[in-house]
Amino acid sequence: MGAVKKIPMRQCIGCGEMKSKRDMMRVLRTTEGDIVLDATGRKNGRGAYLCKSQECFKKAVKSKGLERSLKTPIPAEVYENLEKEIVDLAEG
After folding, report:
1. CATH entry 3.30.1230.10 includes domain 9-91
2. What single DSSP character describes residue 53?
3. What pLDDT does 87 receive?
4. Domain residue spans in the chain?
5. For residue 1, pLDDT beyond 70
């Protein structure tokens, strides 16, 4: 009997569902204060997880869940850039 490998679970800040870390994307506040999409999930900084859907992103924006999780105010142009990246990720 081999050891059962645990699957890391994360909560979506948009819908609140717990899902596997691999099924989600990570939004990251870097040490410089930039807010970027972390495709690898391994960059240094404070992270927040979202489902790979625009609906969850829009819910997170509306409820200010992203600002709360990253503990920083987020300008509108950063939200626009993130939304473009998420659309590209969903299509690709």
Report:
1. yes
2. S
3. 84
4. 9-91
5. no
pLDDT tens digits along 4-49: 889 999 999 999 999 999 999 999 999 999 999 988 888 999 999 9
Quick one: 10 exposed, middle or buried, by C-beta within 10 A (0-12, 13-18, 19+)? buried
Residue 40, classed as helix, strand or coil, is: coil
Query: Which positions ≥6 away from 62 have C-beta within 8 Å?
Result: none
Extract the tokens encoding 56: 């969850």
For the chain, the straight-line distance linking the first and the last C-alpha, in angstroms and rounded, comes to: 39
**Would you give the DSSP letter of residue 4?**
P
Longest dimension (CA), the chain: 52
Cβ contact 10:21 at 8 Å: yes
